[in-house]
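It is worth pausing here to work through a concrete case rather than discussing structure prediction in the abstract. The textbook approach is simple: state the sequence, then state the predicted structure, then interpret. We follow exactly that order.
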Amino acid sequence: MSTVAEKQGILLESGTNEIELIEFYLGSQSFGINVHKLREIIPYDEAKTTILPESQPSVVGTFLVRGNTIPLIDLNIHLRRDASGAEPTAGRRVVLVCEFNRCVNGFLVDGVNQIHRISWKNIQPLSTFIGRYKPRFTGSFAIDGREILIVDLEHIVAELDPEAGLSYHAPETVPVSAPTGLSLEERRGQCRLFMAEDSTIIRDSILRILHASGYTQVCAFVDGEACYDEILARKKNLKKGVADQEQLFDLLISDIEMPKLDGLTLCRRIKEDPLLSHIPVIMFSSLITEQMVTHCQQVGADGYISKPQISELVAMVDDFLLK
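Step two, the predicted structure:
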């Protein structure tokens, strides 16, 4: 099935640090999501809905889409909005059919407005404090004098289905490297990783799992810009002779959606730098689809894995650094 972006011919060039967000409404308030997550928009038809009485309040039930049923989540309820004073929305509610993390879900909203193409630099991240306690939003941007909150659909799905979150299953046996006699954890501990991930919860989860698997030398950054600033600082010290090549890093793990500097642009900058181009870059994102793989390849990414497959991520890091 073609995505909304494909149908409208608005695919962005890779690594331009731009994003296209579709604006939708809950009552009179505007929200947004990345167009790359949107497969289609269809009118809400109660006749196509099967109610699940014992489900969580925001889970309406299942919704029939082209002969297939998908979970239907009411965002008004899940975001705990008080719709009592809102304008009537009967007849114009729509379902946003979204695909991410290898799953398809429907989100019931009150209406859609338009698609906005903006730079990631114009997206304001939530403060660290708010991000820890209200992680259902990843940031905001201003259009025509109004603020639009960007909804973290991945987190919402993980709240309803904990199995959709990050999980890691370590191997039952730990192989030993023949030349050194070091265990796998010891070999992993010698590697230096950079990681760029704007979600506090996901960043902490990945760090915890990497550390538990033996990758203890990990520098984590809140977005692509902070990561790239550190890379430039290390390059500067290298040129000054106050550091050597060992002070760089061995591999980068990066999300794609990040304020200020997105992962594709970060990857492109690394791969265009003769001093850094040899360093493997893995894109770890909920947006990995056939279409997004093409974008990753265009900016020179060495690997790409869809969240929440973190076991595959650790295995891919091993392939690049330990073989």
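Step three, interpretation. The domain at 166-321 is CATH 3.40.50.2300 (Rossmann fold). The chain has two domains: 4-163, 166-321.
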